[in-house]
Design the sequence.
């Protein structure tokens, strides 16, 4: 097996989520199955690769969705991609969420910006067996109502029994009826006791820093705070060195890492 | 392990036999340094090889043969294959072989996936180590788990004496090679072993004199708690950012993958990379946790003397001294470690 090789993946659909975020439906050949929390390396033809976490349900095997924010070279090239084009993927890499540890507990999912993309895959995986958890709490913050990803899906999600949804935007508009403020405002008045649940967070570094601080204040145990760590990555499988965080390598020991494993570091979020 | 003896007169025949295994590389002296070169028997007499073999480690780290600085690793959708042929590398030192066994093997052969090309080279290449009778002032193997001679890890080890060479057979591959050599190799006399022991102790004494102190046993913790940026800024005050220390390091293992469009497909190339590069840690949109050079210097020490020992029980440094010898700013890694 050559771990450096990618497989072809046809682009089936491109959904425009926000002005800077799109969701791509890919059909890798042969199919590439993954567990929630794992990521892939996606090749933009002629430009290079970047790491992304699938945003679709791991139970759908024949295709996968990836939700991508345009920030630089590779992601800009991906925005030129149209249905019918061919990309390449390799993976999956990283350690899946330990969802069996979540059974019988409250699961709090905290997302910021495009950080909801990887969490959507976890959310969909949990929905597959929704009665196994006390309740799933999906809390999401975006900059403005226009920046909300999956707005088209939230209505459906809100109807599911055993799911609680809260949303906030930093800056609202005249139609916005939900919370205004940074995502941590959603953590006030939690409807369950922190020792009866666990929290999973993904978002920009500042959000991660403040969300972790708030979750700790609320009384979540260190090992019950699951953080998606973003580091520079090249190989994805623990060889190239780039993603080191203390003793850990985000690609093979993460990318989701619980707070107890990194709290000794000076500032894991920079 | 078993030891055999190669009388002076049989040395040329021994080299000829070795070269039958594959392309053979020996160090040769250029401008007072040993540098590996492909051996062409018809051009270079066996005696000419000895001077460089008795020197300290060659300029190039051993990883040059096993990882290379630039390598095609995949292409798609077009099929990709590689034909790796056997090679013989003569003249590696204990610090060199340890850089493979203790560092590169841990990275490239263990963990979730292995690098198939490195693996194949490790299987196919024959490494012949040689004692270091004259350690350099930049050498500190003795203080970091090594010796100025090798007793394990390579396939054969050579110790030069006045009457001939003691050949230690260190692996199954080495055993196969010497078996093919028939009666070139003799039984070794106890007197020869005694003489070698003395040479070895002398070399160790020299190293101990140049490096009188042990490093602190708790280097990982010291590095973890050294958060004072002025410490790191001071340590690199004379650094001109030439990055030679990491480029030449035998234990640095970092790389970067990049794609070259070829026709309708892609060719993927793996190039050695190093953490002094300003863009090494950069993530999307330009955020860079290693933006300042002092962060990157600290990163190097964290990687080698904190993370690696915690993960693999050895430092990612073998004391080969290449970074000291190659430093434009005359920075000595030993001094930084002692100041911690
Ligand atoms: C495990 C993981 C999962 C991710 N999942 C998603 C996702 O689902 N959706 C999403 O929009 N984004 C995700 N990201 C972030 C995404 O990988 C970056 O936005 C992307 O790499 C930016 O590439 P660029 O070339 O467009 O940016 P540029 O700013 O042009 O390039 C950034 C520079 O950093 C290098 N680089 C290497 N690794 C990274 C990295 N991790 N982030 C940024 N740059 C990197 C690039 O090669 C380049 O040198 C994820 C990151 C990680 C580590
Ligand atoms: S850090 Fe210096 S002494 Fe240590 S292995 Fe690398 S080049 Fe050799
Ligand atoms: S992180 Fe730096 S010190 Fe460590 S192996 Fe890579 S280049 Fe060398
Ligand atoms: S560091 Fe030790 S083994 Fe390496 S060349 Fe110097 S004396 Fe020889
Ligand atoms: S991405 Fe290469 S080691 Fe983690």
Sequence:
């Amino acid at each position: 097996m050559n771990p450096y090789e990618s497989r072809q993946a046809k682009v089936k659909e491109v959904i425009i989520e926000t002005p800077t975020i799109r969701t791509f439906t890919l059909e890798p050949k042969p199919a590439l199955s993954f567990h929630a929390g794992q990521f892939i390396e996606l090749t933009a033809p002629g430009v290079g690769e970047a790491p992304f976490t699938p945003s679709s349900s791991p139970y759908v095997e024949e295709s996968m969705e990836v939700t991508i924010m345009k920030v630089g070279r590779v992601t800009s090239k991906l925005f030129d991609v149209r249905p019918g084009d061919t990309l390449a993927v390799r993976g999956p890499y990283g350690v899946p969420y330990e969802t069996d540890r979540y059974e019988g507990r409250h699961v709090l999912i905290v997302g910021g910006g495009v950080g909801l993309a990887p969490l959507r895959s976890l959310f969909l995986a949990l929905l597959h067996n929704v009665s196994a958890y006390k309740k799933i709490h999906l809390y999401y913050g975006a900059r403005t109502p226009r920046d909300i990803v999956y707005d088209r899906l939230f209505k459906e999600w809100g109807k599911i029994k055993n799911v609680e949804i809260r949303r906030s935007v930093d800056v609202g508009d005249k139609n916005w009826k939900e919370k205004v403020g940074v995502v941590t405002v959603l953590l006030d008045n939690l409807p369950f006791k922190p020792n009866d649940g666990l929290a999973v967070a993904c978002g920009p570094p500042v959000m991660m820093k403040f969300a972790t601080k708030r979750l700790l204040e609320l009384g979540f145990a260190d090992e019950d705070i699951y953080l998606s760590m973003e580091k520079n990555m090249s190989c994805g499988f623990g060889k190239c060195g780039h993603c080191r965080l203390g003793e850990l390598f985000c690609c093979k020991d993460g990318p989701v890492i619980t707070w107890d494993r990194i709290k000794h570091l000076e500032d894991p979020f920079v | 392990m078993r030891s055999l003896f190669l009388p002076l007169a049989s040395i040329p025949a021994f080299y000829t036999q070795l070269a039958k295994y594959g392309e053979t590389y020996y160090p040769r002296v250029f401008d007072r340094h040993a540098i590996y070169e492909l051996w062409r028997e018809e051009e270079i007499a066996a005696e000419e090889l000895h001077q460089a073999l008795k020197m300290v480690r060659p300029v190039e780290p051993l990883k040059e043969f096993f990882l290379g600085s630039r390598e095609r690793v995949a292409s798609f959708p077009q099929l990709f294959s590689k034909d790796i042929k056997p090679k013989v590398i003569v003249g590696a030192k204990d610090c060199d072989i340890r850089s493979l066994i203790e560092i590169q093997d841990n990275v490239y052969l263990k963990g979730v996936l292995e690098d198939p090309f490195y693996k194949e080279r490790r299987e196919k290449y024959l490494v012949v180590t040689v004692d270091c009778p004259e350690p350099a002032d930049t050498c500190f193997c003795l203080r970091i788990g090594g010796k100025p001679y090798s007793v394990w890890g390579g396939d054969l080890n050579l110790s030069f004496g006045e009457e001939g060479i003691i050949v230690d057979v260190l692996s199954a591959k080495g055993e196969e090679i010497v078996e093919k050599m028939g009666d070139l190799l003799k039984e070794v006399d106890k007197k020869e072993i005694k003489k070698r022991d003395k040479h070895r102790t002398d070399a160790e004494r020299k190293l101990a004199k140049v490096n009188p102190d042990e490093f602190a046993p708790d280097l990982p913790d010291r590095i973890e708690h050294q958060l004072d940026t002025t410490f790191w800024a001071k340590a690199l005050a004379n650094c001109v950012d030439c990055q030679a220390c990491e480029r030449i390091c035998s234990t640095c293992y970092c790389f970067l993958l990049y794609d070259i469009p070829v026709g309708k497909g892609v060719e993927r190339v793996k190039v050695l990379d190093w953490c002094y590069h300003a863009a090494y840690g950069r993530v999307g949109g330009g955020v860079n946790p290693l933006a300042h050079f002092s962060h990157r210097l600290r990163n190097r020490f964290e990687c080698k003397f904190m993370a690696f020992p915690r993960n693999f029980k050895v430092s990612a440094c073998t004391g080969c001294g290449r970074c000291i010898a190659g430093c434009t700013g005359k920075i000595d890694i030993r001094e930084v470690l002692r100041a911690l």
Q: What stands out?
A: Residues 182 and 339 of chain B are 54 Å apart (CA to CA).
